[in-house]
Write the structure tokens for this entry.
Amino acid sequence: MSKKQVESYIPIALKVIKECDKVDDKRLGVGIEDNNKNTIKVIKKEVNGYLASYGPAIIQSGLIPAVVFYEGKDEKKIVNDLILKVIGEKGKDYTRLLEYACKNEAEAKENIMDAIIALKLALRTFKIEEK
């Protein structure tokens, strides 16, 4: 983990979350009106959970198996899409996080872990859906 890298990813993560109502037609959250008639974004509780468990999955299973696991599940794929958007320039030649991870495993692991941390920190600035 690189603190500087995580810090540089946080503004990108905030922007990606704010601008993203859908990633590949999967809803990240919902917009609701507050008391002042302002629309605020509420992040799905599941998305928060998927992101929270991604790092431990990489540590326990390895990078490629964890990325495959999240790539294979429709509702979880949104997390891979968010990570790839945060990584940005480093993953710009790839349309899927799995491609990026397979081609550059050593570099990708650090970048993906840093992006996950940045996304988890950025999510804390949004309201999380309560069920």
About this structure: The helical segments are 3-19, 45-61, 63-72, 77-87, 97-103, 105-123. The first strand starts at residue 22 and ends at 23. The chain has one domain: 3-128. The mean pLDDT is 83.
